[in-house]
Amino acid sequence: MERNERLEAMQEAASAAFAPLRLTTEDYDFDGGIRYANAGGLLVADITGNPGGVWRPQRLITSTDNELYKFSLHLSGTCALGQDGRHATVRPGDLVVYDTTRPYGLVYGTTYRTVVVGVPRNAWPARHRRYSRRSPSRPVPTAVCAGWSPAC
Fold first, then answer.
1. Relative to the CA of 2, which of 46, 130, 138, 143 has its CA 20 to 30 Å away?
2. Spatial distance between the Cα atoms of 69 and 18, rounded to a whole number of angstroms
């Protein structure tokens, strides 16, 4: 499969799993993948890729999209996350939260691996939804990744 075909296939798979988005790559020879499954109403995905970007611009957001909070546990590589004028640098072992109902962007400076859990917004207690206006969250170092990443 050619580079553009691999990038397009990854973009289609990630869009089908979460919500419509766009991928870009800095490497001529794109390499990446996504494995995902639904479990108890949650979407769990293991994602890898080359340096590049993931973009969810306003023009791709519609009322028929999955409305999710994405909890992302970063396992390897580095990433810059931006949403609502806030920015976070994400390193291995960090956990961040962002919202698919608003534009966001991620820029990966290295090859990476991340595990993302998509939680439906309507499953989140109403009293906590006010926190969605604060995303992306400041990265939270977590011991949850013990044994998953050499950085933990």
1. 46
2. 10
Which domain CATH number covers 100? 2.60.120.10
d(C-alpha 143, C-alpha 123), whole Å: 25
Could you check whether the bond before residue 136 is cis, i.e. omega within 30 degrees of 0?
yes
Tokens encoding 146: 């013990």
Tens-binned pLDDT, residue by residue, of the chain (152 aa): 677 788 899 999 999 999 999 999 877 778 899 999 998 889 999 999 999 999 999 999 999 998 999 999 999 999 999 999 999 999 999 999 999 999 999 999 999 999 999 999 888 776 555 555 555 555 544 433 333 333 33
Read off the pTM.
Answer: 0.81
What's the domain count of the chain?
1
In a domain, 150, yes or no: no
Hey, what are 92's tokens? 């291995």
152 assigned to some structural domain: no
- The one-letter amino acid code at 106 reads L
Q: How buried is residue 146: exposed, middle or buried, by Cβ count under 10 Å (0-12/13-18/19+)?
A: exposed
Please give the residue range of the domain that contains residue 28.
3-145
